[in-house]
Amino acid sequence: MSDDARFMALALSLGRRGQGAVWPNPAVGCVIVQQGRIVGRGWTQPGGRPHAEPEALRQAGPAAKGATVYVTLEPCAHTGKTPPCADALVAADVARVVIACTDSDPRVSGKGIAILQAAGISVDVGVLAHEARADHMGFFLRINAGRPMVSLKLASSFDGRIATATGESQWITAPPARRAVHAMRSRHDAVMVGGGTARQDDPSLTVRDLGVTRQPTRIVVSNGLDIPLGGALAKTAGDIPLILCHGSKAPTELIEAWKSLGATLIACASRMGQIDADDMLQQLGQHGLTRIFCEGGGGLAATLLQAGLVDQLIGFTAGLTLGADGLPAIAALQLRHLAQAPRFTLTETARIGPDLLHIWARADAPA
Q: What are its E.C. numbers (predicted)?
């Protein structure tokens, strides 16, 4: 691995520390190197500010002059709540900036690079670009398609069941897999479930036992808003963000009851008696979300898959079988031909305790 790739890999690992905590901003990492020695490191801070570059420059101080900067996304070129990062790099008098991938935000796209080059700074683009685009996928999807990235997590038996015929589901996977799920929740902006899961499991959808202080937003998708008002979600709605996506015919009294508890209500278009997934995700994108971790159930999983809105499949498979009378991980897709089936490409496998983790990327992922 070249030095450029090695330092960029470090910048990417730093940027991932911000995933789930910086939306609607991208989770960027930055490393500053002076004569082969790292003098500054930074990543986007909770809430999206400060950005990675000023954090690294603050740490580097005068050592940034004449240094090489590795950053996972093109430095911003517009003034928002903070000055442009490209200007900060120019002011620090760095010599070279290595950028993993350009920013598709029209306020930035190409402009950050132009500012650096106009100041006489050498710029190289494309080091570990594939990895960077994967890390920033949610941000890019929100900018380019108006919706967040969706990771669909399914914890199932070897034969693809998530519960017995009587509905018993706790626990199919072992504690190490469940701990891994909490870590994945923490790296997403929001955790999403369907109304059936909310009724059946009464989940809190929080990150536990990892020392996390900033909880992901909870999202429940329920056309009729028939979610227990005495459940765990209702009891914590005033303390941890909760978004309820419902249909236009949801009872007004339930809408007002949930609002009074502190929840955010989003009325979504309906299609064939179900919430329109495209409209729902567009509205969640407008809310600022970039990365959603969907944990089912089977009906919501099928809806998202049918709409072509699942960008990543995350499977935890346990070494037990529940049989055909068990509850399937994904509800009926009404497929008549294999060519109609959503296709995914395997990207990672790992043993997590006694269970198997396998991660798949959407085969026709947007560029």
A: 3.5.4.26, 1.1.1.193
Return the active site residues: 53
In this structure, are strands 274-275 and 68-71 parallel, antiparallel, or unpaired?
unpaired
Distance CA 277, CA 280 (A): 5
- Residue whose entry in the numeric block shows the structure tokens 């620090």: 92
Q: Is the dihedral of CA 270, 276, 279, 282 positive or negative?
A: positive
- Residue found by looking up tokens 């490191």 in the block: 41
- Enumerate long-range contacts of 43-49, CB under 8 Å, 24 or more apart: 43/14, 43/15, 43/17, 43/18, 44/15, 44/18, 45/18, 46/18, 46/21, 46/22, 46/214, 47/21, 47/22, 48/22, 48/23, 48/24, 49/25, 49/81, 49/82
Query: Would you put residue 39 in left (φ > 0), alpha (ψ -120 to 50) or beta?
Result: alpha
* Contact by Cβ (8 Å): 108, 80: no
Tens digit of pLDDT at every position of the chain (367 positions): 899 999 999 999 999 999 999 999 999 999 999 999 999 999 999 999 899 999 999 999 999 999 999 999 999 997 777 789 999 999 999 999 999 999 988 888 889 999 999 999 999 999 999 999 999 999 999 999 999 999 999 999 999 999 999 888 888 999 999 999 999 999 999 999 999 999 988 999 999 988 888 899 999 999 999 999 999 999 999 999 999 999 999 999 999 999 999 999 999 998 888 899 999 999 999 999 999 999 988 999 999 999 999 999 999 999 999 999 999 999 999 899 998 999 999 999 999 999 999 999 998 765 4
